[in-house]
Amino acid sequence: MNIETKFLGQVTIDEKEIIQFFNGLPGFEDNKEFVILPLEKDSPFAILQSIKQQEIGFVIALPFVFKKDYAFDLTEEDKEELHIKSPEDLITYSIVTLKEPFNSSTLNLQAPLLINHKQKIAKQLVLQDSNKYPLRFPIEGGNV
Questions:
Q1: What pTM, to 2 d.p., does this model score?
Q2: Does some domain include residue 144?
Q3: Contact at 8 Å (CB) between 31 and 21?
Q4: CA 17 to CA 124: how far, in whole Å?
């Protein structure tokens, strides 16, 4: 299947890789189907792209690469909603706010993206303890 993307132009995706956000993303509730497009092999960065709307795409990153002690608890409801059977089912990403130069970009640690990569379902979790992690954690200068 071919889709138009915000950052990469037209790409071909495997329909089996489509991830369902049953509630959409905050501010984008009507967009429920996304795909993760890797940027480079072994890069902590990727693109989360809506398969329906070209202009809805986000640069995302693996937060643990930039903040080694990043941790939060999931409720039983979150685990059920995401059909998590073991911790290995889950991949966590953070949305990147792009800035010039790139190394001044930030990660949103307050609202991680939780993706059950086996079941292809996901949600954005808004952490309740908003003082623990910042909305804008610097990519450069974090404890990499």
A1: 0.92
A2: no
A3: yes
A4: 18
